[in-house]
Structures are given as C-alpha cells and as structure tokens.
Amino acid sequence: MTETLHVKRREGIGSRAARRLRRQGQVPAILYGHKEENIPLSVPVGEIQAAVRHGARHVTLQGDVQEEALIREIQWDTWGLEILHVDFQRVYAGERVQVEVAIHLRGEAPGEREGGHVEQVLHEVEIECSATEVPEELIMRIHDLHVGQTLTVADLSVPPGVKVLADPDTPVVHCEAITEEEEEELEAPAPGPSEPEVIGRKKKEEEEAQED
Amino acid sequence: MAMMPKRVKHRKVQRGRIRGKATRGNRVVFGEYGLQAVQGGWISAQTIEAGRIAAQQYLRHEGKLYIRIFPHKPITSIPLETRMGKGKGEPEYWAAVVKPGTILYEVGGVTEQAAKLCLARVAYKMPVKVRFVRRLPTT
ipTM of this predicted complex? Predict the structure, then answer.
C-alpha cells in the first residue's frame, strides 16, 4: 500500500528546532539511501499518522522532495501516542528491500478446546520483497494447531514475491497443555528464603573466622 | 511468596529519586496488550504478586501473563517506638522502581476485551495510575 506525503525541507537541526516543528503540527524526518545526500524533512503529523494507521510502508514523497521511499523507522514518545521522528529510505520501484513485518494469527486452534493455551512467541519476522509490495502483515493459520504442537516460520502464509529471511525452524506459535503446577502456583506459591544472599559477605566472614 | 532477588551486592540501598520518563521497558514486547504506568513510584513485591493473582484468576487457563517489572530494591524501615538514630533500619520488603511509561504487565493470547477486563482488575491493585496499551505497529 502506497501513501502520498507532502514533505518540506527543514532548516533547523537539533532538539529545540524539532520541538518547535512538532508544536506546528509537523513531524521531523530524514531521507537517506542510495549513497545520495541526506535530506532533513518535515511531514504533516496527520498524514504520517494516517499512513502508519493504514499500515503503509512504501510512500511517495511530494513537495520539496519528489521521491519514492520506505518508512524505515518510526520513533514514538514514551506513551506510544505521538510520532517523534521518521526515517525514510530511498527506494526504486522494482528494488527488493529487507523489512520486518508483523505476524498475526488467524482462526481458532483446536488445542484450546483440548485444554491447552496458544502462545505466540514470534511477533515479527524479517522478509525480503519488492519495495512497492511490502505486505502489511503475514498470516499464520492456527486451525490445525493441537496441544503440544508448534508452528514455525515455514508454516507462514507468504504472498508471492516475498522471501522470509528467518530460519524456517524458528517457532512462531505453540499450543501447550495447562499443567497442574500452574494451578497450584495460582493458589499458594512455594515459600523461599526470607533474605537474599549477599555477594562477598560469606567470604569475608569465613576469612575473619580463619584469622581468629 | 513474593518476588525477591536471589543474590544482592548490598543488603540496603539509598532511597533515590525517580526522575524522567521510562526510555526502556516502555513498549509491549511479549504479549499483545499491556498495562503502562502513568506515574512513577515503588511497587512492592506483594503488590506485584497481588496483581499477578488478580490477572491469573481472571485469565484462568486462557492466554498468558507476563510480568515486566522485578523488585530489585530493598526498602528498610525503623521499628515502631524506637528512638531515632542508631543507623539505618532493617530491610522490610522489596520494591520495583517504576518510572512513568514503564510497562508493568502484558497479556497475550486473549481478545482485546478480555485483556481489558483482566488488566482493569490488576489496575485496582496498583499504587500508581496506569493505562491500557496495545502493541505498536511494526516498522
């Protein structure tokens, strides 16, 4: 999915200028890649938020700079609400790029009805694909996942033209049986020592005892 | 038994100050939904445990709960009816130092509605204001 962003070149560099820019409804950004000049830009906050919300990775920059780019990195504030900065990487139309995409589970695992619970251990995977056709997400269908089974990267539904770079044996999701230990742990956890061991203390005490 | 370190370098530490916002541990990483502290503070091991039990009782056998904080800090206190002085008190409990923005708990493998209800129960137990958060989009 491609979105169009109207960018402006920005003059000010540094945190104060960036903060001033954010107050004006712009997000500081940078355009780099292909061993060409790095260009500091600013993007309207509404446009970049919409692009992120729509899952766009490939964008067309218009305005002071007219290029095709890939959203390479987004910096968020502490609360994950506001975008602080965006990295754009220059790409050609047919260029193949390496990006991380999210893995989403689809369907209901029969293992859940058999008394297990499904745990997703890998949420993102690195892929190689055409810059203009970066998938929003990769789908993992779990309708055949029974208790004790694991689905790996090799089981992902990958669109044509996309190559997964991760090891095919890397586990993505597994369904594990709920053990009785977990239930016991919920009610009354095992008692432990009241105070932790102090590193170096025993040695000193032993040395003192030997000296005496 | 509440969480506690196995080995420590010092039995007692100074109180310290909580300054600034969390720049690490502020993203949902393991699950899909999380509980993020809006204020800073100390969260005792007992409170962390209370939150865990509240969440587990709601989740039962569905989903997975992740605790993202650990009580590394020994908190000392002086016994009642004791004259001031005579050195620092004895360690009473352990606490996690939480900066605003820290993710306290995460939940995975459940629907958003279930995660909200689960983490709302945990939020009641917390001594700091918290908010429900989701995983950020991948870039």
Answer: 0.86
